[in-house]
Amino acid sequence: MLDEPAMAGAGAALAAVLRPGDVVTLAGPLGAGKTTLVRGVLAALGHQGEVPSPTFAIVQPYDLTSPPVSHADLYRLEDPSELEELGLEDQLLDGALLVEWPERAGEAAWPQALRLSLQPRPDGRRALTWEVPKSWEGRWPPPHHPT
Fold first, then answer.
1. How many CA atoms lie within 13 A of 82 on its CB side?
2. I want to staple 127 with a disulfide (CB 3.0 to 4.6 A). Which of 22, 23, 53, 119 is the partner?
3. Residue ranges covered by each domain of the chain
4. Is the bond leading into 141 cis (omega within 30 degrees of zero)?
5. Which DSSP string corresponds to the chain?
6. Is residue 71 classed exposed, middle or buried when 0-12, 13-18 and 19+ CB atoms within 10 A define those classes?
7. Which domain of life does the UniProt lineage start with (predicted)?
């Protein structure tokens, strides 16, 4: 169970193992802490500005982090076919992709993704669970981290 500082810590742990070409999906209901986790990733990668939820922009690039990160929020997608128009695959050539509301992209999207799921608890903390593909084995979960 994670409180807000622990969410930032989980984001920092994720940032430490993030590589170009990686996709991390973040599932969970509104208010589950998906953007909070992304803020932790970006802060750990050196981003010092604001990190708004990209609900209206859909994709927010952070080109000055290492690796560059694109933060996508697919909440407003009405059909998985709209995904191609966003050019998200191009982001993976030299950067990583963090995707909120991945279920809007369809079941087949990003089979190689680390799939994180956040669920709010009545005490205000969050439960963080994951599905780890082969490409993430040995990188996630991080050793000795209270995820």
1. 12
2. 119
3. 4-134
4. yes
5. -B-HHHHHHHHHHHHHH--TT-EEEEE--TTSSHHHHHHHHHHHTT--S-----TTTSEEEETTSSS-EEEEE-TT-SSGGGHHHHTHHHHTTTSEEEEESGGGG-TTS-TT-EEEEEEE-TTS-EEEEEE--GGGTTTSSPTT---
6. buried
7. Bacteria
CB under 8 Å to 66, separation ≥6 — which residues? 45, 46
Q: How confident is the model at residue 145 (pLDDT cuts 50, 70, 90)?
A: low
Cα separation values, 57 from 11, 47, 65, 73, 89, Å: 22, 19, 19, 8, 17
Is the overall model pTM greater than 0.90, yes or no?
A: yes
Residues 6+ apart with CB under 8 A from 108: none
* Structure token pair of residue 126: 């969050």
**In the numeric block, which tokens belong to residue 74?**
């697919």
As a dihedral over the C-alpha atoms of residue 137, residue 64, residue 34, residue 146, rounded to 10 degrees, the angle is: 50
